[in-house]
Design brief:
The protein is α+β, with helices and mostly antiparallel strands. 54% of the residues lie in helices and 14% in strands. The protein is built from 13 helices and ten strands. The protein has helices at 2-7, 9-34, 36-80, 86-93, 181-184, 187-195, 216-219, 257-290, 297-317, 347-373, 378-382, 387-421, 436-462; strands spanning 101-107, 112-116, 133-138, 142-153, 156-169, 200-202, 223-224, 227-228, 234-240, 246-253. The protein is elongated, with a radius of gyration of 32 Å. The two termini are 47 Å apart. Mean pLDDT is 76; it is low at 175-179 and 215-231.
Length: 463
């Protein structure tokens, strides 16, 4: 009795975790229902903290780069007697490159004499003075953060270093044919990735320092879940420059009660699914270990493999671990194949299923080889094959032929998806070692080819 209890202790632990997650999810949803005003305020504070943290990091990187350029130029002008050679300027700044950052040097007359990086907006009048400042410059498509650093030798101003970094991108059209490479380098991308929200950006006219007002649509307070949203449909987060002045504003959507409850429920469901899969896996494993002596070796191996496939499709049914890896290797937009009821619905799922298929076929091949190498008893050597043996042989051939078709069809379908449906770039000449998506795709394809070879060997030996 004690041995049985000790064996099934792990499934019991997963069952307790599952019950605890159910209770925690129920309590969290009830608490959000009862105190939505407090939860909404907490969510707003969290979003505001992420926006400000992202901007502080973004601006500080540009500020450090501009100050590093200023130090390098002061050394150049001291050594060269006042001039800044373009090649020397670019070499000095190439040591610590920053994506989407332009660095420019203007001499004491305000003339651009050296630069490094992509182009940026032209400077307006009165920008190059004795103040170290930052501001946002809005264009029709691209907006930039601009930081000016005056250079002094003694009390005399000898020039300015200007840093320009991409802030937002607003294409007139937005579809999959428009490259998102520029957007990925902007503050807009960083802030939206940190918050998980679609944000709007307001850049005031530098000639009129004012805090922008929300539009009527922003002020609207729609009813959500039968109750008015206490904070309105959006709220403003001011962004401060290096001098502490407000230089722009981020308009973030207020949390909606229905969306928050749905997201919270989905989060707990994901954890519950993982705990449920852990319970099933531990239960199957413990049961197989408990009854391993009452089964023959082939029966034990086949039952173990069957249990693994049941566990695999249970994982697919509850989308584990895909639900915990949105946008990663389990993102179906990178790769998806409809064959096998979702066994290869993403890169990660394809690798898991292909690995399990290779292990299954390798185990079957091992059993076939072991059976063929086993010595026959004297009675079996003298016995002639009867009708039962012939029927068993024919049945085995029929089963093998029946499995050969679906396996071949599955191999064809997945390889076709790899070639035609995958969004993973396998032909980039700049890449020597593949990244995680390309590596997972190649690994899955190799495992499938290996599995097809094992299947062919099994078919030939069994025939």
């Amino acid at each position: 009795m004690k041995s049985v209890i000790s064996i099934f202790l792990l499934p019991g632990l997963f069952l307790l975790i599952l019950a605890g997650l159910f209770l925690a999810g129920h309590w969290s949803l009830g608490d959000a229902e009862r105190d939505w005003a407090g939860v909404s305020l907490q969510q707003k504070n969290s979003v505001e903290a992420e926006i400000l943290s992202a901007f502080a990091q973004y601006q500080d990187e540009a500020r450090r780069a501009s100050q590093g350029a200023a130090s390098a130029i002061l050394n150049m002008t001291r050594d060269s007697g006042g001039g800044v050679p373009q090649q020397a300027f670019m070499e000095a700044l190439a040591a610590e490159p920053l994506p989407s950052l332009t660095l420019e040097y203007y001499d004491s007359r305000g003339i651009l004499t050296a630069w490094a990086g992509p182009a940026g907006p032209e400077l307006g009048p009165g920008i190059l003075d004795r103040m170290h400042r930052s501001y946002l410059d809005e264009g029709p498509i691209y907006s930039y953060l601009v930081i000016t650093v005056p250079l002094f030798r003694g009390d005399a101003a000898i020039g300015h270093v200007v840093a320009k970094r991409l802030f937002t991108v607003s294409h007139p059209v937005n579809n999959r044919f428009v490259s998102s490479r520029a957007l990925a380098l902007s503050y807009q991308s960083l802030a939206e990735e940190r918050t998980g929200l679609r944000l709007e950006f307001r850049i005031p006219d530098r000639r009129r320092e004012h805090r922008p007002s929300l539009t009527d649509g922003d002020r609207a307070s729609p009813e959500v879940g039968g109750e008015p949203d206490p904070g309105g449909a959006a709220f403003i987060v001011p962004l401060k420059g290096v001098s502490g002045a407000e230089i722009g504003y981020v308009v973030a959507p207020s949390p909606e009660k229905a969306s928050f409850l749905e997201m919270t429920d989905a989060t707990y469901r994901g954890w519950q699914n993982m705990a449920g899969i852990g319970f099933i896996a531990s239960l199957v494993g413990c049961a197989a270990w408990r009854f391993r002596r009452s089964l023959s070796i082939p029966a034990y191996q086949l039952s173990t493999l069957a249990s693994l496939w049941v566990l695999r499709y249970a994982m697919l049914a509850v989308d584990v671990p895909g639900s915990r890896d949105a946008g990663g290797l389990f993102d179906p937009s990178l790769f998806a194949s409809s064959f096998g009821y979702g066994a290869a619905k993403s890169l990660g799922d394809m690798v898991i299923s292909a690995t399990l298929l290779a292990v299954t076929l390798a185990s079957v091949l091992r059993m076939v080889l072991a059976r063929g190498a086993a010595p026959l008893s004297p009675e079996r050597e003298k016995a002639r094959p009867g009708v039962a043996a012939a029927v068993a042989g024919v049945a085995g051939m029929v089963i093998l032929l029946g499995l050969l078709g679906p396996l071949s069809r599955g191999f064809y379908a997945v390889i076709q998806s790899v070639v035609f449906d995958s969004r993973v770039d396998l032909n980039d000449p700049k890449v020597i070692y593949p990244g995680p998506p390309a590596g997972a795709l190649l690994l899955g394809a190799i495992l499938l080819v290996f599995s097809s070879l094992l299947g062919g060997i099994i078919f030939i030996m069994a025939a």
